[in-house]
Structure to design on (257 residues):
């Protein structure tokens, strides 16, 4: 049974179909790429999976359970974490506090509850602080834990976005353009981190990315969208030689490697 299955999902905005009768799956332990030209429906699909949008038609199944009608906080509690195209962070607060907020999402005390200093909440807050520092260390940015998020360079801000998502302890991680704006060294570092998340922590990854070298270098399988329709689903080798994909995604012959 797939970890995630999208079954005949359509999403309309007015009379415009952002996604049309889309069926796809993600197996446990995979890194799956979701690609396509701008406006193909990739981020809309992420929002449907995460519960931000309700599909017009179809179902989203996670671990065999129908999560189509769940809210974002409920999908998060089921084990689905996500990042965004922009680094959604509390820019005027410390890096550590940003990650702690992610930790509170699935903790037994809420962020507001942490403000009331009972002995139990104090102990739990210490545990959450420790968890947040572990996530920052995993991402290689623990040395900036006390800096304001707004003062981080772009590459560190992108890493912080991933760290916040990791703080919710996801089993399925939705990464929306994780290397956007990164230089080659930062990109290679992020690729290595994503592989570690899968190999060492057992996190399954579904990612949207326009950098084809990243997609081809990371993904076990690639799903291609065009105008909301799935036009291909296969290995990097199969996708790179698919003429329909090349025409739809790039408008002509191109080297994907």
């Amino acid at each position: 049974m797939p970890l995630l299955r999208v079954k005949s999902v359509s999403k309309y905005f007015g009379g415009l179909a952002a996604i049309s009768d889309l069926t796809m799956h993600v197996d446990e332990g995979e890194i799956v790429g979701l690609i396509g030209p701008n406006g193909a429906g990739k981020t809309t699909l992420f929002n449907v999976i995460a519960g931000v949008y309700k599909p017009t038609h179809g179902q989203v199944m996670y671990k065999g359970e129908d999560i189509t009608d769940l809210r974002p906080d409920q999908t998060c509690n089921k084990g689905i974490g996500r990042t965004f195209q922009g680094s959604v962070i509390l820019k005027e607060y410390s890096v550590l506090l940003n990650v702690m907020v992610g930790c509170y999402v699935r903790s037994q005390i809420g962020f507001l509850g942490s403000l009331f200093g009972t002995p139990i909440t104090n102990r739990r807050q210490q545990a959450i602080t420790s968890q947040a520092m572990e996530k920052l260390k995993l991402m290689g940015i623990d040395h900036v834990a006390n800096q304001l998020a707004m003062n981080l360079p772009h590459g560190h801000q992108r890493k912080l976005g991933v760290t916040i998502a990791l703080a919710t302890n996801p089993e399925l991680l939705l990464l929306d353009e994780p290397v956007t704006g990164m230089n080659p060294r930062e990109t290679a570092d992020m690729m290595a981190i994503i592989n570690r998340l899968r190999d060492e922590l057992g996190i399954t990854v579904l990612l949207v990315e326009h950098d084809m070298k990243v997609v081809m270098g990371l993904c076990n399988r690639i799903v291609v969208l065009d105008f909301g329709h799935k036009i291909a689903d296969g290995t990097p080798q199969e996708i790179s030689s698919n003429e329909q994909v090349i025409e739809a995604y790039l408008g002509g012959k191109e080297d994907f490697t």
In short: Residues 95 and 151 are 10 Å apart (CA to CA). The chain is about 40% helix and 25% strand. The mean pLDDT is 90. The beta strands are 4-13, 16-26, 31-35, 57-62, 65-66, 80-82, 172-176, 204-208, 221-226, 229-234.
